Give the backbone structure.
Amino acid sequence: MSQLTTELPHDGAGSPNPAPLWTAPAPRSSPWTRRPPVILVIPATIGAALFVLPLLGLLVKAPWEQIGTLLAAPEARDALWLSLVCSLSATILCVLLGVPLAWVQQRTTLPGRSVLRAITTLPVVLPPVAGGVALLYAFGGRGLFGWLFNRDTGIQLAFTTTGVIIAETFVAMPFMVLSMSGALQSVDHRIEEAARTFGASRWTVFWRVTLPLVRPSLIAGTVLSWARALGEFGATITFAGNFPGRTQTMPLAVYVALESNSDAAVALSLVLVAVSLTILISLRRQWFGQL
Amino acid sequence: MSLRAHIATNAGEFHLEATITVAPGEVVAVVGPNGAGKTTMLRALAGLLPLSAGRITLNDTVLNDPDHGIHVPPEQRCIGTVFQNLHLLPHLSAVDNVAFGLRCRGLSRRESRKRAMPWLAMMRLEDKADAKPAELSGGQAQRVALARALAVTPDLLLLDEPLSALDIATRAEVHRDLHRVLATFPGVRLLITHDPAEALTLADQLVIMEHGRVIQTGTPTEVTLRPRSPYVAKFVGVNLFHGQAADGHIILGDGTILHDPAAPDGDVFALVHPRAVSVHTTTPQGSPRNVWHGRVDSLDITGAAARIAVASKPPIVAEITIAALTELRLTLGAEVWVSVKASEISTYLQ
């Protein structure tokens, strides 16, 4: 069957929809492009406004002349720095743990793979706060594993910078797993097999064949994970708390600043918007292709 | 340099059980229709499929012996394979594809490339060294795959339908390279094909498979003279009838009787070469005793000869000259009589 698919023409000749021999005279201009029905245009406009107006609000209300000072303030600087460090650490963990996780799900016959797949993608739909609570009861000071870990190493995970990284990894890694699973599934397994017959061990096949073939998805998964980690709020505040300089990342700082110094909140939000937009634009194809 | 393989394995619902031996200096072609188990056999030999029973020995090394828990993984077998769909690594250049096996054996990038180049040169592809597989023509990609299989200096060269993906012009060109490689390669050579021209011209021994079993082995001459199944007969292009012979009469499965005074008694095959079949537009007169009546089912012209499949009882293929074809004014569906002289029937016990 697979042989058949590779031989099918991908486009052009032999396409399943050849031009009919007889065609009805085409309408002079498609009614859809000339005058779209009002019943669709109005909700579409409202929908678009929901996205455009908040952005506009941020841009108009932004304290442009003091934005430098606001972002240079100690709390803002700490939050920016902490966000950068934690989100990058979480991203590295996503790559180091998420890629093998996707591989195991796609390339082995491990029992319970489908359950594993469901659990590893759960944080995509799970409210982050619930994730944070779950993390607390697993890795918190009195959590199932947290107290064991604390007893043996003296290290506390909850309410520390490490906790932020764990929370961010928890919510971000599913994006890596999803992205990589899809990519691994689309790699022709027979190419990997062929590589093995030329002397490549399973690890060499993974490193020299599989990874290069899924590189675009690996990059997409990495950037998506990073974006998700950067914006993480719910799980972080629940599991790591909100301590300036230690666990107060940008989104938390924005939330706090809104109460006291709304200009700082706007400035920090603008930074987040700018980062997100950059990611979105650079990843447009993968975004729509994969998710 | 020899291969002895007794392979019993399951690929999904499909069960393969076959014995294949390649003696030193021999090129063996495994031949069979789609679904015969040829590729399954190749995968078992390459170590990509475990055996349920049997034993594979290459030279003096046991590669598989499930009874003793032996399964040498693919990467440790000294086998060079040309896969049917090539499976070149799309992200590597031609030279890096050829060098891949050497890289896996621990050579540096530079050293492996240096050793890969002569193989590319042998395939006249030095100038394509930096091209990615997608930038190569079908024939070039096929030759890269061949170079890649040879570069690891394997003990066993496995070729899976090495010409089937190519157009006719390219096929002739790669066929020459293939012939040269097979002639000079010092190890065990095993070719898998469903193309008679490939099998009959490149191999010393044929192993014919159907439904996961070996149904006939022999040299191309033996197989051509004594086909033992309808598939083999079709493969070598002859008519083959199966029946019970007694006193020079052969009773076929459909009740038709063939006359061959020389036929041995028993369960027999009767072979009729299409060139020995005469075609008439009226009831033939004279000596032939084997006469069929039917309609022209298909007409196939190659060179100066025409092959006519006649829907008769039993169906038979005749080969006549173009001159005869035009003289008889044959068209599809035309009513014809075909006759075969008893002396042209070759009957042998099953």
Q: What stands out?
A: Residues 213 and 297 of chain B are 32 Å apart (CA to CA).
